[in-house]
Amino acid sequence: MPKTLIEVDLKQSPYENENIHNRWHPDIPIAVWVKPGDDFVLETYDWTGGAIKNDDSADDVRDVDLTTVHFLSGPVGVEGAEPGDLLVVDFLDIGAKPDSLWGFNGFFSKKNGGGFLDEHFPLAQKSIWDFEGMFTRSRHIPGVQFAGLIHPGLIGCLPDQAMLDMWNKREQGLIDTNPTRVPPLANPPAPKTAHMGRLKGDAFEKAAAEGARTVPPREHGGNCDIKDLSRGSRVFFPVYVKGGGLSVGDLHFSQGDGEITFCGAIEMAGWIHMRVNVIKGGMDKYGIKNPIFKPSPITPNYKDYLIFEGISVDEQGNQKYLDMTVAYRQACLNAIEYLKKFGYSGAQAYSILGTAPVQGHVSGVVDIPNACATLWLPTEIFDFDIMPSASGPTKFISGDVDMPVSPDL
Q1: Are 243 and 180 in contact (CB under 8 A)?
Q2: Distances (CA, A) of 278 to 8, 86, 323
Q3: Of all helices (H) and strands (E), which one includes residue 74?
Q4: C-alpha span between 154 and 22 (Å, rounded)
Q5: Per-position DSSP letters for 254-323, written without gaps between them
Q6: Prior bond to 142 cis, omega within 30?
Q7: How far is residue 354's CA from residue 371's CA, in Å, rounded to a whole number?
């Protein structure tokens, strides 16, 4: 049996666990050391550290303090790993903690985090998903069941000081272009809620003041939310500090491409079994500045899809030039409108796209002025037929069940 190197108690605040941190900084002490070739297990909190509850209210999603997240297990130091190397990480197995066989999906209030479609869904909402072995269902979204592809939404190595400074400079520069935007353009350091593992005293104060938030993906990996990083995946991470400083968290039971709901996927507490190795000088050998990976050989076996197109013309009819974000947004909105014809609320349809094994594709970026994105919705996840027919859609969902919503205070 592999050894569990980091344990979490879901009844305990992550701030009380010295093997957890919620910022990126090179001074965060290594929590555990391993050797190349070692395999081990790390337990993880859900990304909010237990702030979201298994209930029928969305108040916790509305009120969550997003400066606290994400809570990561680590850093793990690998003996012999040095800047310029590649850290090779094999995902051997991933699962939910036995005392927490459920997860959540939700939309943040536009005033507190927002999301991909926050203009259409500005209020906080939540759906709870129960795990039934490899499958999941939600009491808030009837008529749908699918197999999970469990993966870490967030995994990466510690940055060095030069990289950290670069992140803070460029992101603050973006914020300065529209400092009052809601939601903000980026998230600057927030020292009051920083947790730096075992770091204490003046060193903690310095690191907290400049520690990078864990919200976006960056050169080191981070919050990439790639659903195919599941069991059997192998990831090659650039190393920037001695030992690498590998940290992981934000486990997802299932997710659609893009994690469009932001409080997205089906968020869960769990564990991950990994093996690590090192390729000396690998960054230069392979010209790598961002992680690369081999996807999992295990995927939900859905073969039949209904595919929705979107082009780079926004909801107001404004023409954009090859804008893939606008195109994918339109594909998502088109799928939501379609699912509403079967009785789903817009929120339920939005949540399905964020949680189910939906595929997003860059389908065209050369035919000016319109980029084309496609969203592939697996038809087999539904308890009823969603294909178009001459008879028209039948409302299989009664409408008497919906996701909890909380008004802004």
Answers
A1: no
A2: 27, 6, 38
A3: strand 72-78
A4: 11
A5: ---TT-TTSEEEEEE-EEEEEEEEEETTHHHHHT-SS-EEEPPS-------EEEEEEESB-TT--B-SS-
A6: no
A7: 22
pLDDT at 409: 84
Determine contact, residues 157/86, Cβ cutoff 8 Å: no
**Per-residue pLDDT at 399:** 85
Q: Strand order in 270-279's β-sheet?
A: 3-6, 39-44, 270-279, 86-96, 234-238, 292-294
Q: From the first residue on, what is the mean pLDDT of each consecutive set of 10 residues in the chain (409 residues)?
A: 96 98 98 98 98 98 97 98 98 97 97 94 98 97 97 98 98 98 95 98 98 98 96 98 98 97 95 98 98 94 97 98 98 98 97 98 97 98 97 91 95
pLDDT at site 162: 98
pLDDT, residue 1, reads 83
pLDDT number for residue 398: 85
Identify whether 70 is preceded by a cis peptide bond (ω within 30 of 0): yes
Alpha-helix runs per DSSP H in 111-185? 161-176
Sequential DSSP letters for 190-250: -GGG--BTT--HHHHHHHHHHPBPSSSEETTEES---TT--TT-EEEEE--STTEEEEEEE
